[in-house]
Amino acid sequence: MRRPGANKGFDKNGRVPELDRATLRYSLSVSMPVGVYGVAFGAASVAAGFSVLQTCLLSLLTFTGASQFAAVGVVAAGGSPFSAIGAATILGTRNALYGIQMNPKLQTVGWRRAVAAHITIDESTGVALSQVPRGEVAVRQGFWLTGIGVYIFWNLFTLLGAAGTKALGNPAAWGLDAAVPAAFLGLLWPRLTSHYLRIVAGASMAFALLITPVLPAGLPIISCALVAVAMGWREQ
Amino acid sequence: MSSSSLWFVVLATSALAFVIKLLGHMVPERWLANPRLQRINSLVPISLLSALVIAEGFVAKTHVALDHRAAGVAVALAALFAKMPFPVVVLSAALTSALLYHFH
Fold first, then answer.
1. Which residues of A touch B86 (CB under 8 A)?
2. Where exactly are the structural domains of chain A?
3. Is the pTM for the entire model greater than 0.80?
4. Which of A178, A224, A233 sits opposite B73 (nearest CB)?
5. In A111-130, which positions are buried (b, 16+ CB within 10 angstroms) versus exposed (e)?
6. B84 contacts on A by Cβ (under 8 Å)
7. Residue A94 in contact with residue A124, Cβ under 8 Å?
8. In chain A, whose CA is at the least distance from the CA of B101?
9. By C-alpha distance, which of A129, A70, A130 is closest to A98?
10. Is B55 on the interface with A (CB under 8 A)?
11. What is the ipTM of this complex?
12. Are A121 and A63 in contact (CB under 8 A)?
């Protein structure tokens, strides 16, 4: 009999159960491609004016890709620090919803909970929830393996992208100023899974274009959250 | 932006991101179960990423501008329609933009 709450990824004899190979494979297949985005982030951040150290700290400490991209995107657009922090924070709120789903499954307390919280992102939550049919141990292993795997790859490749861009010099000469919006488009694309979501994207782009001439730089980005509020207000 | 402002962005963004993540692990599930909140929250990344594509690809300071970056984004869009992987999408945009930047 397993005591409720006693299992932290250990079996009843206190040993770590054998790693589920399918879970491990899936975690790695999600973690490794994240490195490519890490290079893009490192490049975008240095191109926006952050130092290599600041760029690496964003990946180590913020560790939620879309928020990091948003912060450097607003800075690159000439926005204020508060616009940058605001846009990043609004994008980070979904991690709270992930934590609410993950905490009952992980049953962590104390410092383990803090570590679990830090690696609660799209990828770790997604893999963990996909392992539900395989049992609670697979869910926990999926979460920790993917979270730690993404952490390693994301930070390693952020450093590569940042240091490489620093060495290259003028970002425009290497097309980096176009690589950044292309990366945003690449992040957006797989999310547009329904007709309605494509309308939301189109409306947001139109709104951003319309308000760009009348608002200070950076504010149009964060103002587009209003489009999400308006279009999510009623059920579709 | 000055170095101290950039440090402020790095540290405040990191602190808030962690507080949000930790809150999720601490608050009771029912607090954020509101369907409207969940709907809006699922649309926020789409709205902000869309706005970032515009701000980074089609805006110079505070006016709309069609330059080498816009051409790069157009090529990226074509690559996405052709189901190209992420690195190809980004590199094709960079290459297009760099060529236009040099020969324009």
1. 33, 36-37, 183, 186
2. 21-190, 192-236
3. no
4. A178
5. eebeebbbbbbbbbbebbeb
6. none
7. no
8. A173
9. A129
10. yes
11. 0.86
12. yes
Task: Indicate the domain borders of chain B.
Answer: 1-33, 34-104
In total, the C-beta contacts within 8 angstroms joining chain A to chain B are 316
B62: its two tokens = 């505070």
Tens of pLDDT, residue by residue over B8-48, are: 999 999 999 999 999 999 987 777 678 888 888 888 889 98
Tell me the pLDDT tens digit for each residue of A46-92: 999 999 999 999 999 999 988 999 999 999 988 999 999 999 998 88
Listed range (A15-19, A37-41, A159-163, A223-227) with the worst mean pLDDT: A15-19
How far is A174 from A149, CA to CA, in rounded Å? 30
- For residue B59, list chain A residues with Cβ-Cβ distance below 8 A: 77, 212, 217, 220
Distance from C-alpha of B18 to C-alpha of B91, rounded to nearest angstrom: 32
Chain B, nearest residue to A56 by Cα: B10
CB contact under 8 A, A181 and B29: no
Does the pLDDT value for residue A1 go beyond 50?
no
| Cβ separation A178–B64 shorter than 8 A | no
Local structure of residue A62 (DSSP, 8 states): I
Q: How far apart are CA A37 and CA A53, in angstroms?
A: 18
What does the block give as tokens for B75? 């090529």
